[in-house]
Amino acid sequence: MVDLRNGSTVTEFILVGFEQSSSSTRALLFALFLALYSLAMAMNGLIIFITWTDPRLNSPMYFFLGHLSFLDVCFITTTIPQMLIHLVVKNHTVSFASCLTQMYLVFGVGVAECILLAFMAYDRYVAICHPLSYAHIMSRQVCVRLVSTAWFFGLINGILLDYMTFRGPFCRDNHIENFFCEAPIVIALSCGDPQFSLKMIFADAIVVLLSPMVLIVISYARILASILGRTSSSGRGKTFSTCASHLTVVIFFYTSAMFSYMNPRSTHGPDKDKPFSLLYTIITPMCNPIIYSFRNKEMKGAMVRALGRTSLAQAESI
C-alpha cells in the first residue's frame, strides 16, 4: 500500500528493540527499566517541585536545574514507555507519523538540553569569577531568555533534522534495529542515497554538540584559573564540589550523544547502538538528579524539607 503523503511504500516501522531476547530476559529488562524509569521520574519530579517552590533555592543555578529536570522528564517519556510496552507485547509496529513525531521530540528536547548545559556552565563562571556582578548579569529576565533560547533552537533544530531524516522514500526493509526511532538507523532504511542526509545530520551534530561544548570548556577553563588563584583551600574545595556535579552530567550526556550522531555508520551496529542509546535516554536522565542531590547540601536540605512537609500533610489528613 502506497502512502502518497511521503511517497513511499512504507507506512509503518517495526522497532526490533529486544525482540531477539528470550521471554525471561525481556521480563527482567521490563522490571529493570520500569524501576529506572520510575526512579528517574520521581527524582526529577522532586527536583522540579523543590526548585520551583522552595524560596531558599531562588537562584539562577536552581532555576536552570529545575528546567534541566523538566527536559529530562520530557526526554525519557518520549522513548521509555513505548519500550516498556514493546517488552510485554508482540506487536512492535509504529506508524510513520508516530516515528516522525518521536524523533522530533527526541531531537528537540536533546538539543535544548545541550544548549541548557552550556548556559549552566556560563552561570557557574559568572557566579565564581564575577560574584559581585552575578545578580545583575544573571537576572531573572536573563535566565528566562536563556531557557527560552534553548527551547527555541531545540524545537527549530528538530524540524530540520526530521526533514533530513524523512526526505527520501522508504521502500526497503522497515525494521529499526533499536528500541526507538533513531535518525541514523532510519536514514539507512531509505531507498535513495542516504549520504547527503547523514552528512547534514553529522554537520548539525558538530554545531549543536561542539558549539555548546566550546562554551563549557571556556567557562570551566576560566573557573579553573580563578580557583587556582585563590589562597583558601576550603574555598577551592567548595567551588570544585559545586562544579563537579555539572561536569559529570555534561560528560555522561555528551559522550553518548557524540557517539550516536558523530560516528560513521560503518562503526555502528545494534550491539553498539543500544547501550549508548540507553545511556542517554534513561541512564543520564536518572543520574542527573542523583548527582546534583548527593553533591549539594542545599538540595539535600530542600528535599528533606519537601519530604517532611509531605509526611506532615499526610499525618494531619489521617
UniProtKB/TrEMBL annotation:
It comes from Panthera leo (Lion). It is a multi-pass membrane protein. Signal peptide: none annotated. It comes from the Eukaryota. PROSITE patterns: G_PROTEIN_RECEP_F1_1, G_PROTEIN_RECEP_F1_2. Keywords: Cell membrane, G-protein coupled receptor, Membrane, Olfaction, Receptor, Sensory transduction, Transducer, Transmembrane, Transmembrane helix. SUPFAM superfamilies: Family A G protein-coupled receptor-like. One of its GO terms (molecular function) is G protein-coupled receptor activity. Belongs to the G-protein coupled receptor 1 family. This is Olfactory receptor. The lineage of its organism: Eukaryota, Metazoa, Chordata, Craniata, Vertebrata. The keyword Transmembrane helix applies. Coiled coil: none annotated. Putative odorant or sperm cell receptor. Residues 43-292 form the G-protein coupled receptors family 1 profile domain. Pfam families: 7tm_4. GO terms for cellular component: plasma membrane. It is found in: Cell membrane. The chain crosses the membrane at residues 27-50, 62-84, 104-122, 142-160, 200-223, 244-263, 275-294.
